[in-house]
Structure formats: C-alpha cells, structure tokens
Amino acid sequence: MQHSADIVVIGGGCIGVSVAYHLAKRGAGKVLLLERDEFLGQESTGKCAGGIRAQFSTEVNTRLSLLSIKAFENWQTEIGEPLQYWQWGYCFLLTSDELVASFKKSFEMWKRLGMDVEWWSPEQVAERLPYVNTDGVQGATFHQRDGFGDPSDITQGFAKAARKAGATIENNVEVTGIKLDDNNRRVVAVETNQGEVKTGRVVLCTGAWTRKVAALAGIDVPIDPIRRQIIVTDKFEDIKDPFPMTVDLSTTLYFHRESGGVLIGMSDHSESAGFNDSFNEDFGEQMLVTAMERAPVLENAVPKHKWAGLYEVTPDHHPVIDKLGHLQGAWVCAGFSGHGLMHAPAAGIVTAELVLDGKASSVDITPLELARFSDPSRLHEEANVI
Ligand SMILES: Cc1cc2nc3c(=O)[nH]c(=O)nc-3n(C[C@H](O)[C@H](O)[C@H](O)COP(=O)(O)OP(=O)(O)OC[C@H]3O[C@@H](n4cnc5c(N)ncnc54)[C@H](O)[C@@H]3O)c2cc1C
Predict the structure, then answer these.
(1) Are residues 233 and 130 in the same domain?
(2) Tell me, what CATH number does 187's domain have?
(3) 243: pLDDT confidence band, cut at 50, 70 and 90?
(4) Of 120, 138, 285, 367, which has fewest CB within 10 angstroms of its CB?
C-alpha cells in the first residue's frame, strides 16, 4: 500500500468515490481513497433504493439535486461508464392540509429554480396513476426529471473515473487514527490497519460511521446511524411502466420499479440510533400492509428480497460539508440523511471546490457548515424525508 498522499479520502461509498474523482480530475496531486471493506459501496450505498429527485423543501438540498441530476444526465460524456438511470419522475401524494401548504411553498421555490414541476388534482392522480387508491389524496406534485439510478453503477463509474484521473483506491484498509501535529491543529498522517499514511489533507466520507471517525481527531460531528428497510417483490406487471417513484409522505411509504418487480420502502419513526441493520420482520409486515392500502394491486405481488441498511442522519436532515472544526487539513462530507446517492455528484463537486479553492462556488453550502449545530437559529429542517 502507498504510505503517503497529498489527500486521503476515507470511505468508499458513493460519496467518497465522487469526492476522490472530482479531486483527481482537478489535479489535486496524489489522491488516495481508503475503504475498510473488501469492496466499494457495500454499506449504505449498496443498500439504498436508488431514488434521485429534486423535490426537497430547502433550497440547498434542491440545488444539490439539480446539480447532481445534470451530472447524471451527462454521465456518458463525463464518466464514460454504464449507468442504468430511469427518469420516470417522482410523484408526492399529499393527504393533509399541512402537506398541501408546505408543498405549495416548495412549489414556488422549485419554479423559481427553473424546475418543470406539475401540480396534480386528485382526479389527475387517478388518471395518471391508476394503481393508486386516492382516498384522502388532496393533490400531488410530479417532476419528470426525478427518477432512480443504479447505486452500483454510480459507485463503480466514479471509482473507475477516479482511477483514470490518477487516484488510487485501496480496499481492506481501515483508518484507525488521525495524527495531528504537536499543537493538535494540523493533520500530518492517518493511521490504518496497514500502517501509517503521511498526508497533510484528509476528507471524511464515512457516512454513518463519521461520528466515530471524526472522534479520532477529537471533533464531534452529529451524524447518527438509523435503520431503514426495503422489500422487493418478484416480477410484477400489474403496474405498467413507466411508473414514477410514488411517495405517500404522510406514511413515508414509497415504491418504484426494481428488476421487474416493485421496491417498497418506509421509515419506522420509532427506530432509535444504532448500528443494528438486521431486517425487522414486524415492521416489514407493516410496510406491506401500508403499501397494499395505498396501491391495492400490490396484494398480488410476492415479496422476494428484503434487507435493511443505515441512514446517516443529522439533526436537520442536511449533510455536513465543511472543514472539520478548527483542524487544518481536514474536511467532512457526510450525513446526507438518506439522500446521499442522489447528491453524490454535487457532493464531489462542492467538496473539491472547498478543499482546493477554500470555498464552494457551484452551490452556496453555508447552510451545511458544522458550526450550525451550535446555533439552533441556523437549523432549517428538511421536511421531505422518506
Ligand atoms: C434503505 C435505504 C434506502 C435509501 N434510499 C436512498 C435513495 O433512494 N436515494 C438516495 O439518494 N439515498 C438513499 N439512501 C441513503 C444513501 O444510501 C446514503 O445517503 C449514501 O449511500 C451515503 O453514502 P456514503 O458514501 O456517505 O456512505 P456509505 O455508503 O455508508 O459509505 C461510507 C464508507 O465508509 C467506510 N468506512 C467507515 N469507517 C471507515 C474507516 N474507519 N476506515 C475506512 N473506511 C471506513 C464504510 O465501510 C463505507 O463503505 C438510502 C439508504 C438506505 C439505508
């Protein structure tokens, strides 16, 4: 293994490989990515639903998505690797006055940002999505450029492009320490299970494990792991393609096409923070019942695969993209709170700008600074979390 680098990126999920790619592409010197697993993208990234959408309640999340969607649309030209990507849209079903009011506000913001988003009446929902039980539905929003993409293609694509741009990626390397200078201010090396790597710059892209890794440098980054789970049915053709990612925000139920079947997800709001990622069968039952209530046709679908994974959740459901506290030569890009796949391209672009130029220019990421957690007036909750 290489024992020195200009920049070490820790973590080989979709965020780390995107950050490594964008740093290498910008000629940042010797970029070395360290991943503790045998393969890239096996943690949250490999367990995610693949959803990609711009319909967020805050401007910064919407802007990160729009930058990312542009990158996914230009994937062939920029990355030159295969990407399975379906822009079949996202439809949010709105079932309460509060949701209608909140989405009306967002709708104005989306229009201002140039999004071609549609507002549907309950009758339009019934016509466009005949599989939906419209009981309680007061309206819906639909954005055609939203959709879903393959997490493995995204990770492998960025990794290959990063290598082509000169980055080195090492698997089976766990970072066990972050070494600082005598004044405890500047990064001088990272310690790993395979020895020390001398470096003056390190970027933490460690998802749900970021709090642990940042603690190695004595900094607290409030990102907690929260279990989320998914069920995928056997081949199912009673819902006709192309059907959009369909979301019932009141229950957080969502479903979309996956490998010829239907992928179903939902959040368990009683879940507490922890690294348990075993599948909870009782909650799995609740997911299926809720899915059949909203889309009765799913009664005919047979569950085939099920798994759980970890969201990497911050108190306001926005990532942290910033310097790592007072340290020189350390940054963090993590805590996407369930939106990391869709934000991966933008995350790489703005992190490379932050590290190499001292400031992000593609998106104003001031709302994502670490210091916001010590000032409650700076916390603006993302409302559209599923
Ligand atoms: C069920 C589920 C559904 C989801 N659905 C969506 C969706 O539809 N759309 C979407 O955008 N997002 C979704 N997400 C969220 C998405 O998966 C995450 O936001 C994203 O994968 C985060 O990427 P990451 O690279 O930060 O984290 P990870 O993919 O977890 O990568 C972090 C990496 O860091 C490595 N690491 C940790 N500690 C160390 C160390 N000490 N040394 C070396 N390496 C280390 C880990 O091994 C891991 O590979 C979903 C997540 C789940 C669980």
Answers:
(1) yes
(2) 3.50.50.60
(3) very high
(4) 285
β-sheet bridge partners, residue 323: 331
Predicted pLDDT at 65: 98
User: Nearest Cα to 158, choosing from 265, 66, 83, 262?
Assistant: 83
How would DSSP label each residue in 288-312?
Answer: HHHHHHH-GGGGG--EEEEEEEEEE
DSSP at 240? P
Residue whose pair of structure tokens reads 């925000």 in the numeric block: 249
The SS3 of residue 322 is strand
Q: Is residue 56 part of a domain?
A: no
* Ligand 1 binding residues, C-beta < 6 A: 10-16, 34-37, 43-45, 47-51, 174-175, 205-209, 213, 228-230, 265, 309-312, 334, 336, 338-342
C-beta neighbour count of 238 within 10 angstroms: 12
| Helix 151-164, helix 14-25: angle, nearest 10 | 30
Nearest to 15 by CA among 231, 337, 237, 265: 337
pLDDT (0 to 100) of residue 141: 98
Give 244-263 pLDDT, tens digit per residue.
999 999 999 999 999 999 99
Say whether both 170 and 41 belong to one domain: yes
> Residue 341's pLDDT is what?
98
- Same-domain check for residues 240 and 271: yes
Task: For residue 352, report the distance from its CA to the centre of ligand 1, in Å.
Answer: 19
Domain residues for 25?
A: 7-49+152-223+316-378
pLDDT for the residue 66: 98
Q: From ligand 1's centre to the CA of 291, what distance in Å?
A: 25
Neighbours of 220 (CB within 10 A): 11
The rounded Å distance from CA 299 to ligand 1 centre is 31
Q: What is the CA radius of gyration of the chain?
A: 21
On the 0-12 / 13-18 / 19+ scale of CB atoms within 10 A, 153 is middle
